[in-house]
């Protein structure tokens, strides 16, 4: 799965949790979930649970620590997908 | 050093489904979960525990200049007026109040500091800084280049720690001029 595919899925997952639709439309690897999309930190859990369901992965607490921007989120998803495949 | 966190209960309860499978596991230790589920108002307890963790995170974030998302690393061992939360061997002291559908928690590195923290509640609007400053006689609330708030004495220019939190309809500014 490449980054563009993951970004498309992420946009879909994040949609209900942000009012900043413009920043969501133009979402890139450099987008910060809390600063740019103004996602509430209590809703970050919802996003992480949605990611687990969508990609069929399990995200441990250590991985969750870094998931405040798109770049780290993609890295975690790829790492967990690779672990599943292996 | 101080921190604070505010939760608009109406907003929290509409936007987050804490009963969702896995939700509590990501945020709370099994002991915290047990306390939440055994309480007479679990929903309110979820957000009380959460606000304590967030208020302590604000202190750690300010000290380390690092942003991270590790709610489970913050262990709440006591709640209410004499709250205690630990993080990587450090202890923080907290005090929470629940009123008008909001929960507000202040946190400090020393228990006695809590008595010196003042709180101003404002409406959560984009021009809250000018709103706060128009009402404040002695101090100006400012944010530095990193977005860190400070309360500056209008007469002697002295700078004091401040912490801002907002959620839904509510915004709180806390500061300790004698800290």
From TrEMBL, chain A:
Pfam family, one: PP-binding
Native source organism of the sequence: Pedobacter frigiditerrae
InterPro entries associated with the record: ACP-like_sf, PP-bd_ACP
SUPFAM superfamilies named among the record's database cross-references: ACP-like
Lineage: Bacteria, Pseudomonadati, Bacteroidota, Sphingobacteriia, Sphingobacteriales
Chain ranges of the Carrier domain: 1-81
Matching PROSITE patterns: CARRIER (PS50075)
Name of protein: Acyl carrier protein
Domain of life: Bacteria
Automatic annotation (TrEMBL), chain B:
MF terms in GO: holo-[acyl-carrier-protein] synthase activity; magnesium ion binding
Pfam families per the UniProt record, alphabetical: ACPS (PF01648)
Domain 4'-phosphopantetheinyl transferase residue range list: 2-93
Keywords carried by this UniProt record: Transferase
Origin: domain of life: Bacteria
Record protein name field: 4-phosphopantetheinyl transferase family protein
Source species taxonomy: Bacteria, Pseudomonadati, Bacteroidota, Sphingobacteriia, Sphingobacteriales
